[in-house]
Amino acid sequence: MLVLTRKLGEVIRIGSGVTVRVLEIKGNQVRLGLDAPADVKIFREEVYRAILSENAGAALGSLDAMDAATTAVRKHKGGANGVEDKLGR
Amino acid sequence: MEATEQLRVLSERFGEFTVPADQVLTLQEGLIGFPEYHRFVVMEHPSPSLLRWLLCIDEPNLAFAVADPTDFFPSYQLGRHEEIEALGIETADDLAVLSIVSIPGDPAAMSANLMAPVVVNVRTRVGRQVILENGLYSTRHRLLRPAGP
């Protein structure tokens, strides 16, 4: 891992399009200003990890899981009759 | 009427499906954690309900249960989001939102990920999974109210 020391207001550049500026240092918190092209997504690590883990856990293991879930939803909410479906099928 | 090209999708896990080519959704960046898969289709389960399948055409053993979040959470709102605008969504009619649903051992405890919806431009059939960092939503909102005493 590359380790750099920066002062308040100083910038790190990553590649040609990404910059990270130290905006504020207060106690154990650092505020950073990030600039990146639109196709470079920026996430807080813990948020990204949470979504990744939720997606992985949500992948269906079998038809049975969907059957059971569909039954539970129908019991609580009824069937899908009359539901507008823009995505088809 | 012109016949639409049909894709045959064979899934060891879920069975065999025929998907009209014009129903395919493209998620250019894939789902978070599954960046390698881009083509999906939304399908009804044989016994229809508010849950539908989001089946991956590139890896047919990968599928998710999805729901329109507003069917369960009427006040759900995406808010403004750069990535949604980048999809070229101009009116509400262009927009479809799918929340990925996690089904635990007890399906009554199923939950929707309202924080990271899959947002689709219905006109172009291109979508992406976005992360809403508005502090309103988490990755797990229970879909069904626990049964009363």
Walk me through what this model shows.
The complex is a heterodimer of chains A (89) and B (149). Chain A is α+β, with helices and mostly antiparallel strands and 89 residues long. Chain A has two helices and three strands. Chain A has a three-stranded antiparallel β-sheet with strand order 1-2-3, with no helix packed on it. In chain A, a hairpin with a 2-residue loop joins β2 and β3 (29-35). Chain B has 149 residues and is mainly beta. Helix content of chain B is 5%, strand content 35%. Chain B has helices spanning 69-72, 82-85; strands spanning 6-11, 15-20, 25-27, 39-44, 51-56, 63-67, 95-102, 111-112, 118-121, 126-129, 141-142. In chain B, the strands form two sheets. Chain B has a seven-stranded mixed beta barrel with strand order 3-4-5-6-7-9-10. Chain B has a two-stranded antiparallel ribbon with strand order 1-2. The chains are: A alpha+beta (89), B mainly beta (149). Chains A and B meet through α1 and α2 of A and β4, β6 and β7 of B.
Q: How would you summarize this macromolecular structure in one to three sentences?
A:
The complex is a heterodimer of chains A (89) and B (149). Chain A has 89 residues and is an alpha+beta fold.
Q: What features would you highlight for this structure?
A:
heterodimer, A: 89 residues, alpha+beta, 3-stranded antiparallel β-sheet, 3 strands, elongated, B: 149 residues, mainly beta, 7-stranded mixed barrel, two-stranded antiparallel ribbon, 2 helices, 11 strands
Order of helices and strands of chain A: EEEHH
* Quaternary structure classification: heterodimer
Percentage of residues assigned to helices of chain B: under 10%
- Shape label of chain A: elongated
H-E order of chain B: EEEEEEHHEEEEE
Helix content of chain A: 25-40%
* Poorly predicted residue ranges of chain A: none
Continuous helix count of chain A: 2
Helix and strand arrangement:
The complex is a heterodimer of chains A (89) and B (149).
Chain A: E1 11-14, E2 18-26, E3 29-35, H1 45-58, H2 63-77
Antiparallel strand pairs in A: 1-2, 2-3
Chain B: E1 6-11, E2 15-20, E3 25-27, E4 39-44, E5 51-56, E6 63-67, H1 69-72, H2 82-85, E7 95-102, E8 111-112, E9 118-121, E10 126-129, E11 141-142
